[in-house]
Task: inverse folding
């Protein structure tokens, strides 16, 4: 056993050393290439030094390693939005959850990037679903999509269901990549997150009108602080309700530089949020937005993008009574830029984003729009156009070769590159699977197998 | 109510209910003298309601089925649910029953309407063995949360059907995903959560109007973290896994004792009869095999302990639900004849779900007599059990398992029926069974497939193209967005 262990250990060293391979000139040829914004039949994708060199229909450059993708589909790696990847291992284990904070003085200033774990066992699982980037968002009561609890136990009075965010803001989101290695952070503090609707109102005292009032008052304080930092520091400013850290964090929101991701469901609340954004000069991204189709034109004319889960079609509470499977299609048709989410906070079930996109297609969303909603759109929404989420020259070489249409559950991600680095096609789950695939009843206990 | 006369549901009527389609709402209050099988002529019958045997079916089904016509579904690719596949197949339905399934040469009786399924796929109606529709309905607001009687670790006395709100819009959504039969279960806070009920997925004003005639009750039991967390946090037992097991054993000891008392009283008629106890009555139903154990249980080691428990008290476990680690004991489950009702993609939300793998169903399906089932436990997922099965199929194929689609469809049809004890009634397109049929727009293992038509007992319950067959519940009427089209699709088309 020892010898075998050594060999395996050596193999894993090779795997860890594989970033060097990102330098290699590689051509993926003959596949149906989904660039993110277009489709090329029999296309060629060339990558080197971690970036896409070219995308087209030419031959592979000489000297390149060639991956034959004939009969297969080549796509950009997908971008999980509203994700908790790297920030939570086991949902019910509070100590492993670094997505939610309960200190009153650290609300807007809460920065998820410090809690991210490159060794999280959730990352390889998501990667096998074609996810190569994620927008990791701090969580709050009222987030996470449909509001369904696991295995019907949460109603017993345990779990997150009763918690509320202590401040108006859940904190700041970060962008990660999912490559193996020691550093997954791409960019911290890319957006601020705040719940509105029932969840937001609940923070302030229960009524929506109170939250909007407090929100405006908060921005007024931030602006006052920003103009008078010196006075604030010598205690020469009137007392402000936020901590200094929160005031600082909100300056880019107040001046319209940092987008504010607003979790909101009800059409009426969406209208109010659009109005608030207009009045305050705040740049917003809608998240959830189950009833958005009712006000699609207003969202489109405001130029506001939407992060949504197209399968959220149940009237799960009184904020989502108009939820429909056609939400994605209707918003896209109105000209709204949409990104499609995975399920349940896009951590363990982030990989299901591609199925959600497929279901949006079967409910009216054009296929190319669905692919865009997993790739170029999230990059664009978070200011990363051309950096990733697209197969075009200069973008990060996040490339997935699929056995077939990536939106189909029967299709598998066969070869995965992140930043040009080929990823080992395995996960903790695959190790478990392989240990028991022969029934687990051999003479030696399964524990001797790995 | 000191009436001596029993509420006599005759055995003949019971049999008719069991057979199905006849709408027997008979109560027969004054029609006959007592007819319970254990009655003795010399004994005065107990007052109404005090003897369980006098009325085995106190909340009887009034299910009638929808209007139906005889038909032949022709030209589609048929997965019959029993493992067979027919290209250009024929499914003949007469009087709400399947009478023939086969290839294009299958004879079609005169007068049967021809339903054109060319280019489409035909499967049995999909069965969800683990649903909380109606008991945890939409909207999931306080006041509507009726699924967990989390007041005691043993609530075997409660019945999910008494919480079931038939206006839950989720039933309509599920039907649009091909679901024709569901088991509605209580939650998993308790060791014994109560009885589940199997329903036909047609719109109804009453629970009784959906209740599947003749389907056995299930008893929801729960292993693991949930009971010990819920009660341990209240500083009461069970607070641990060992407390869970002690709780099951104590309950079955009480049930055995209760059964012995009734048996003795029925045998010799001496003394006062035992006082009827609904909690023990449900457990006695488990002991005599009339109520099926539907056991929420995640971990392999706990499944093995539950099997030993069942031997200690002499009952059978029909299915382990969620069964995250079923693949670790797949050969044992097959030997014991226990189904594993599973998700494909759910894992990691608590410690006992940590080892969930996508290939679970494929590995459970592999041994001879394996019974793999894909279930939902979720009002969203139930709309797409076909896709969840597809993801399991893909995971099996990924490791080289040669699993056909006509085999995998059983995970949401015939195996699911077996898991509910109704495989003689539905779950496959075989002669004599209920004509529960879905016509899909494409291969149901494709994400793009939609259920075009859904038939329950041969009656058209949903038609994606025809608004006349697109029910909306009372709750959906007049709500925001009602009557408006989204992306040019009307609400009822889902």
Result:
């Amino acid at each position: 056993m020892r010898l075998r262990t050594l060999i395996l250990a050596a193999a894993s060293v090779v795997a860890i050393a594989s970033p060097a391979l990102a330098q290699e000139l590689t051509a993926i040829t003959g596949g149906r290439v989904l660039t993110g914004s277009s489709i090329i039949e029999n296309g060629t994708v060339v990558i080197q030094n971690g970036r896409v060199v070219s995308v087209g229909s030419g031959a592979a450059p000489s000297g390149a390693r060639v991956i034959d993708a004939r009969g297969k589909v080549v796509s950009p790696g997908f971008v999980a939005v509203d994700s908790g990847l790297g920030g939570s291992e086991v949902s019910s284990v509070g100590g492993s959850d670094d997505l939610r904070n309960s200190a009153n003085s650290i609300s807007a200033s809460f920065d998820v990037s410090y809690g991210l774990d490159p060794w999280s066992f959730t990352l390889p699982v998501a990667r096998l679903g074609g996810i190569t980037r994620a927008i990791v968002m701090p969580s709050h009561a009222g987030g996470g999509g449909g509001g369904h609890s696991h295995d019907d136990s949460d109603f017993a009075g345990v779990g997150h269901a009763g918690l509320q965010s202590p401040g108006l803001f859940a904190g700041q989101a970060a962008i990660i990549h999912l490559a193996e290695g020691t550093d997954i952070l791409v960019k911290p503090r890319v957006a601020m997150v705040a719940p509105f609707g029932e969840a937001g109102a609940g923070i302030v005292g229960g009524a929506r009108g109170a939250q909007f009032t407090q929100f405006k008052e908060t921005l007024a304080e931030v602006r006052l602080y920003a103009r008078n930092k010196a006075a604030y520091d010598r205690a020469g400013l009137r007392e402000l309700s936020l901590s200094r850290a929160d005031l600082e964090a909100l300056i880019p929101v107040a001046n319209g530089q940092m987008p504010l991701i607003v979790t909101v469901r009800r059409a009426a609340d969406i209208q109010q949020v659009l109005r608030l954004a207009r009045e305050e000069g705040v740049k917003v991204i809608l998240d959830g937005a189950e009833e958005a189709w009712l006000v699609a034109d207003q969202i489109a004319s405001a130029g506001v993008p939407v992060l949504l889960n197209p399968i959220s079609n149940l009237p799960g509470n009184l904020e989502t009574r108009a939820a429909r499977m056609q939400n994605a299609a209707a918003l896209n048709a109105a000209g709204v830029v949409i990104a499609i989410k995975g399920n349940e906070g896009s951590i363990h079930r982030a990989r299901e984003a591609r199925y959600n996109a497929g279901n949006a297609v079967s409910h009216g969303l054009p296929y190319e729009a669905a692919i865009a909603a997993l790739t170029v759109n999230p990059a664009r929404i978070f200011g990363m156009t051309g950096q990733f989420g697209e197969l075009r020259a200069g973008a990060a070489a996040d490339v997935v070769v699929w056995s077939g249409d990536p939106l189909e559950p029967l299709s598998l991600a066969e070869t995965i590159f992140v930043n040009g680095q080929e990823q080992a096609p395995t996960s903790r789950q695959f190790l478990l699977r392989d240990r028991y695939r022969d029934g687990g009843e051999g003479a030696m206990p399964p524990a001797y197998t790995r | 109510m000191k009436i001596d006369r029993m509420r006599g549901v005759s055995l003949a009527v019971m049999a008719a209910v069991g057979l199905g389609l006849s709408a027997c709402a008979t109560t027969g209050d004054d029609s006959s003298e007592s007819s319970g099988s254990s009655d003795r002529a010399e004994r005065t019958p107990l007052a109404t309601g005090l003897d369980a045997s006098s009325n085995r079916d106190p909340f009887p089904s009034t299910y009638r089925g929808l209007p139906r016509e005889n038909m032949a579904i022709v030209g589609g690719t048929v997965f019959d649910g029993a493992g067979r596949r027919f290209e250009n197949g024929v499914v003949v339905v007469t009087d709400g029953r399947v009478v023939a399934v086969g290839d294009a040469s299958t004879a079609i009786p005169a007068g049967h309407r021809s339903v054109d399924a060319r280019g489409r796929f035909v499967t049995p109606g999909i069965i969800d063995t683990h649903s909380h529709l109606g008991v945890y309905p939409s909207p999931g607001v306080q006041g509507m949360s009726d699924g967990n009687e989390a007041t005691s670790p043993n609530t075997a006395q409660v019945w999910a059907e008494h919480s079931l709100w038939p206006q839950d819009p989720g039933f309509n959504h599920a039907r649009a995903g091909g679901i024709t039969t569901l088991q509605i279960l209580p939650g998993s806070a308790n060791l014994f959560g109560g009885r589940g009920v199997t329903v036909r997925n047609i719109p109804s004003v009453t629970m009784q109007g959906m209740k599947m005639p003749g389907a056995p009750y299930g008893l929801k039991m729960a292993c693991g973290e949930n009971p010990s967390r819920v009660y341990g946090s209240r500083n009461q037992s069970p607070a641990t896994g060992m407390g869970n097991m002690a709780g099951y054993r104590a309950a079955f000891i009480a049930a055995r004792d209760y059964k012995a008392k009734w048996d003795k009283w029925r045998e010799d008629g001496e003394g006062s009869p035992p006082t009827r106890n609904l909690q023990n009555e449900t457990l006695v139903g488990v002991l005599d095999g009339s109520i099926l154990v539907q056991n929420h249980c995640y971990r392999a080691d706990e499944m093995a302990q539950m099997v030993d428990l069942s031997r200690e008290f002499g009952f059978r476990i029909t299915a382990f639900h969620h069964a995250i680690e079923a693949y670790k004991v797949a050969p044992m489950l097959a030997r014991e004849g226990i189904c594993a009702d599973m998700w494909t993609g759910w894992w990691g939300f608590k410690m006992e779900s940590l080892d969930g793998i996508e290939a679970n169903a494929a590995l459970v399906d592999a041994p001879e007599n394996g019974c793999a089932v894909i279930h939902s436990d979720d009002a969203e997922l139930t709309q797409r059990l076909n896709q969840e099965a597809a993801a399991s199929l893909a995971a099996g194929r990924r490791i080289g398992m040669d699993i056909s689609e006509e085999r995998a469809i059983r995970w949401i049809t015939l195996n699911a029926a077996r898991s509910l004890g109704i495989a003689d009634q539905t779950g496959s397109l075989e002669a004599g069974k209920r004509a529960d049929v879905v016509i899909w727009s494409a291969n149901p293992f494709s994400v793009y497939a939609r259920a075009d038509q859904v038939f329950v007992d041969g009656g058209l319950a949903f038609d994606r193209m025809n608004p006349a067959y697109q029910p909306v519940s009372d709750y959906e009427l007049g709500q925001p967005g009602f009557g408006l089209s989204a992306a040019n699709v009307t609400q009822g088309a889902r």
User: Anything to note?
Assistant: Chain A has two domains: 1-77+389-450, 78-149+161-388. The mean pLDDT of chain A is 91. The longest helix of chain A spans residues 208-227. Chain A touches chain B through 70 residues (CB under 8 Å).
